[in-house]
Amino acid sequence: MPNVSRVLSYRHLVGDDFVPPTSPQVFFEPADTETGVWVAGDLLTPGGSVLDLGSGSGAAAAAMARAGAARVHGIDSGAQTVAWASAHYASPASRNGNRPGEGRVTVAQGDFARMTTEELLATAPLPLPRPLVVTSNPPYVPLTLRADAQRRSISGGDDGLKWAPAVIGHGRALRTDLGLTIGSYSTPRKAVQLLEAAGYRVHAVTLCPLPLGEFTLDNMEQVLALEEAGEAVLWRARRGAPAYFIVGLACRWTGPGRTAAGHERLSGDGLLGLLHLAARSRTSRLEALDGPRPDGWNGPLRVLDLPEATVRHHW
């Protein structure tokens, strides 16, 4: 039988995590954040820590601490974003008695795509205890150059994977497990190929259906081009505008040249086939996934069927 679990409500985000930041410069998408925390949870080891690249508002980092990480250190390039995260999530626990875990969260400003791995680690006030997990929910919307210039906070370049090589490179340098969140339109086959080339195996997948945002709908040229080329998957089961799937990939470090075989390996073609299967579903439960999987992969698969957020920044 397929190994599919379903989550029908938010489990990791709580209370003020659902209050939109007052600064429009701070990324806010609860479903994306919730997905990233589930991915981290698939990899966390008690007593270990997380290096979160492109940490945004800090809500994900705080939720990872609540989920069991001993320490979470976030890096983000936005000054307003880091200021918000520092004020709301990186305060000492004594000042956030109703938020257990936040005292273990630190954030720093930096561009992870330009910094060396050693420079990233040096921004943490204290060494991060091992085992370490690298996570990232980077901008992943495929956009044209014109649209990219208007909304860089969500742009993943022409293939949606502009930031993935840097994220994967830091994980490879540290030889740690890696959690990466992308979109079903972000050339998912290529994403798995990049991961495997760096020595990673996809261990678990989390999918969350989500409507396309207004800016994305107004700038669909690149997404539609990728769909036409067979490198993007949209969900068109409902009337009106198409939706997509947030794709959370929990990846184990195996080392270059060591590829899992048979049912343990989810290939790039396998992930693309899985997303096409999900897109046959009529409801947000993604019930089509209850049938046989295209390539026989039998790893953990989770579907987040979450209430729709009323506010989404930047989309």
UniProtKB/TrEMBL annotation:
Methyltransferase domain: residues covered: 50-116
Stored InterPro entries: Methyltransf_25, SAM-dependent_MTases_sf
Pfam family, one: Methyltransf_25
Gene3D superfamilies from the UniProt entry: Vaccinia Virus protein VP39
UniProt xrefs under SUPFAM superfamilies: S-adenosyl-L-methionine-dependent methyltransferases (SSF53335)
Coiled coil stretches, renumbered: none
Protein name: Methyltransferase domain-containing protein
